[in-house]
Structures are given as structure tokens and as C-alpha cells.
Amino acid sequence: MKEDIGNFLNYLVAEKGFSQNTIDAYRSDLYQLTDFAEKEAGKRGEIPSWKSFNRQGMISYMLDLRQRNYAATTSARKVAAAKSFFGFMVAENRIKDSPVKEVASPKIGKSLPQPISISQVRSLLGQPSKSSGSEAKRDRAMLELLYASGMRVSELTSLNVGDVDTENDFVRCFGKGHKERLIPIYHQASLAVKSYMEEVRPRLVRGKKDEKALFLNRRGDRLTRQGFWQILKGYAKAANLEGYVTPHTLRHSFATHMLSGGADLRSVQELLGHANISTTQIYTHLTTDHIRRSYDKSHPRAEDE
């Protein structure tokens, strides 16, 4: 059964271009489903196989998730992984029908992303400048670039030296599915990156002249997402934003502030690298104050008593 999962994961890499993080999540969820299916088959004295795993088995699995007190979002993700897997199995003629067919997924409410205010962003981005250490210039470059572009943290840490054009104020990054996009950035972010590359990165890279990564840790290796998270925690605490800032906060704030400033939804969608505009539309719920001000200013009857 796990061999079938391995084939499915290989398909996701080769045909869909899924990231390693996504593949790891799928593997974990589907292995949990496998363990459940094997135990249920053992109770019935049957040899476990996907062909014998039916709709009732899937419903029992979902009930088991509920009894384990998983969050609705986690259960929904696990069921979605199962749907994708069984869809692949049907397409490959490994099973006749999907056991998830006509099984309703756990309902979850959409959680709105929590941005921070423009003044809070300024405070956070200003923290590295208060330190005299060389790594502070690296940190300032990362924070400025993240807020300037709205990139995901994984995209930031995946950047190579040639991906930022500091003369023309552009950054090139590769998003989900390895889709490339060019993002304009404000000049202050370009200057921060340029300063880091000229004054700090040569000292961090040491003898590893072949290292292509833009942002490096103290050992001269590519900085990881976890490494960035630890750095961000320190600056968030210093800015009195501890508990309010996560690695995704600057991306959320970028989108919200762009829309509040008058950017159209399609442009923000392209900048964020969202495949579907419905994903971007969640940010429109966060800009109602801006919409009200625009309405009151623009509508000829808005100021009538």
C-alpha cells in the first residue's frame, strides 16, 4: 500500500512540480491513512489493500480523526490528500472507484490573515539598524525585501545571488510549481540588499566561493526558513510585536497595504503568485476602512444630510 503512495508522490514531483515540503506533508497524511486501513483490515481478518478500502472505511477514518481531536483544518487537509491520492489510483486503474467519492470533507471557516499596521512594519524593519553587528545588515535586507515583494519565506530563502537586480529594482523568484515571477521592489530594499551583498556576504561565504545562495547563515550555508523564523522572533520582540508576527505576516501586510493604497486585485494576485484570484480576494475583507473612505470621498450623495 505504501508502494502505491510512493508512486503517487513521484507523480506529484515529476508531473505537478510540488515542493518537498508539500510532498512530506502528503506522505505523512497518507501513511496515517495506510496505518488506519491496515488496522481495520486486520480486525476483519483481511489482507489490507486499497482495493478493499471502501467508502465506509473512509467515513470511519474521518470519525477517527475527529475522535483524536484534530483541528478542522488539519482533518480537511488529510481528507484532501486522500482525495488526490485515490483520484490518482483511479486514473492509474489501480482501483475502480474512489472511496472518497461523495464523502463530504470537514467544513472549516476561512480564517482571515492578520496583518500588522504600516507603523508596526516600520518599527519591525527598523530594528536591525539598531544593531552594529554585520549580520544585522543581512537581516535588514531580508526584512526589507520580504515586505517590498510579498514573497513567501520559502521563496526568500531560496533566492540566489543573481535573482535580485539592485540596479533596476526587481527580484526574480520561483513560487509553487516552480513558476517564475518578476516582482518590482522599492529602491530602499534594493539598497539594503546591495549593502549586504557588498559588505557582509563576502565575510559569511568564507571559502565557499561556489555557494549561490543569497542569504547565508554564520557557517556560510543557505539560511533556512527555520533560521529566518528565529531571527524574526528576536526583532518582533524588540519591536514589542511578539506574538503578532510570524514568517508569513509581512506577506499578509504587503497584500493588505497594497490594496489599501489603491492597487487592483489582479496586480496583487500576480505579485503574490496566486494561481487563483479567489485566494487573493481574502485580503479584500481587510480593506473595508479604505473602501469606506474612498466611497465617502467619491460618491456625490455621501456627504448629503
Keywords:
305 residues; mainly alpha; DNA polymerase, domain 1; hpI Integrase, Chain A; 2 domains; three-stranded antiparallel sheet; 3 strands; 56% helix
Written overview of the protein:
The protein is mainly alpha-helical and 305 residues long. The protein has 2 domains: 2-91, DNA polymerase, domain 1, CATH 1.10.150; 118-293, Intergrase catalytic core (hpI Integrase, Chain A), CATH 1.10.443.10. Helices cover 56% and strands 4% of the residues. It has helices at 2-16, 20-43, 55-67, 72-91, 118-126, 134-149, 153-157, 187-199, 201-205, 225-238, 249-260, 265-272, 277-281, 288-298, and strands at 164-165, 170-174, 180-184. A 3-stranded antiparallel sheet has the order 1-2-3, with no helix packed on it. The chain is globular and about 70 Å long. It starts with a helix and ends in a 7-residue tail after the last helix. The mean pLDDT is 86.
In summary, what is this structure?
It contains 14 helices and three strands. It has helices spanning 2-16, 20-43, 55-67, 72-91, 118-126, 134-149, 153-157, 187-199, 201-205, 225-238, 249-260, 265-272, 277-281, 288-298; strands at residues 164-165, 170-174, 180-184.
Q: Give the C-level CATH assignment of the largest domain.
A: Mainly Alpha
Radius of gyration: 24 Å
Stated plainly, the CATH topology of the largest domain is called hpI Integrase, Chain A
Order of helices and strands: HHHHHHHEEEHHHHHHH
Give the overall shape, derived from the CA principal axes: globular
Say how many strands there are: 3
Q: Give me the CATH superfamily of the largest domain.
A: Intergrase catalytic core
Spans where pLDDT lies below 50 across 5 or more residues: none
How far apart the termini lie comes to 71 Å
For the sheet with most strands, the description reads: 3 strands, antiparallel
Residues in β-strands, percent: under 5%
DSSP helix fraction: 55-70%
Major beta sheet, strand line-up: 1-2-3
Structural class: mainly alpha
Please report the number of helical segments. Answer: 14
The CATH architecture of the largest domain can be named as Orthogonal Bundle
Mean of residue pLDDT?
86
| Number of domain modules | 2
